[in-house]
Amino acid sequence: MAMIRSLDEALASITDGCMLAVPRESSGVAMAATRALIRRGIRNLHLVTLPTSSLQADLLIGAGSVATLETSAVSLGEFGPAPRFTAAVLAGTIRMLDATCPALHAQFQAAEKGVPFMPLRGLIGSDVLARRPDWRVIDNPFGADDPIVLLPSLAPDIVLFHAPMADRFGNAFIGIQRELITLAHAARKTVVTVEKIYDGDLLRDPLLAPGTLPGFYVEAVAIEPRGAWPLPLPDHYAIDAAHMTEYARLAATPEGFADYLQRYVYERRAA
């Protein structure tokens, strides 16, 4: 059963060099936890996003925490390009594993099912396929002249996300963000930050149980109100547009990014 822990205690299993998987911006991103990892000086992460990322990946890359990035896109969306990601790719300071949204979903689904690979058709002829020698094209054994791509399973060491609530049994309510269940099924361990603790058993509530990740998939839970800030938490709070605009401006230069880290990561906990 997952334990309710302090944030630093919950993050203890995320160590240098591990494969860390995180969800897209709109699914519940553990930004308070991300800042805590940077304060701790985490290094050499293999960061995998399902399937995209924004501020979270950009912060970790800029802070020097990422060695390998596996993603279909990193962007600040309406706030512009992800500046530290762009700088790292141009400078060659991170190893890039280009992917697509369907490919990443298929790879996590393979790990979820306990199989070594998953077939996917739509990559044939793409430039992405040409850049991934670990993806194999074979002939469909049940058809003639019908190539298919085999994608290796992705079983991350840790999955980290933010959710609206959990109970004291470690059950975490994720609502309609179903890819979080796929991530937790695929991972060796899952760490969740939450807005609050639910008084009761989520799995015994007929309305909440269908959107609940059972606690036996969860390693640790930490209570972090507004823990996705400045990113949104669906049905709870919106993105902080003013802060994202400030980040895009500051992170455009190494000096500005260092100033951002000092002001919003090292000096104080953001609220």
Keywords:
271 residues, alpha/beta, 10-stranded mixed β-sheet, 3-stranded antiparallel β-sheet, globular
N-to-C terminal Cα separation, in Å? 29 Å
Mean pLDDT across all residues, rounded?
96
The stretches of 5 or more residues where confidence is low (pLDDT under 50) are none
State the share of residues found in helices, binned by percent. Answer: 25-40%
Provide the structure class: alpha/beta
- Rg over alpha carbons: 19 Å
Secondary-structure element series: EHEHEEHEEHEHEHEEEEHEEEHH
Secondary structure tally, helices: 9
Q: What is the number of E strands?
A: 15
What percentage of amino acids are in beta strands?
25-35%
Shape assignment: globular
Main beta-sheet annotation: 10 strands, mixed
Report on this structure.
The chain is 29% helix and 25% strand. It has nine helices and 15 strands. The chain has helices at residues 7-10, 31-40, 55-62, 83-91, 101-113, 127-130, 179-186, 241-250, 254-266; strands at residues 3-5, 19-23, 45-50, 52-53, 66-71, 73-74, 95-98, 117-120, 136-139, 147-152, 158-166, 172-173, 189-197, 212-213, 220-223. Strand 11 (158-166) and strand 12 form a beta hairpin. Helix 3 packs across helix 4 (83-91) and helix 5 (101-113) packs across helix 7. The two termini are 29 Å apart. The mean pLDDT is 96.
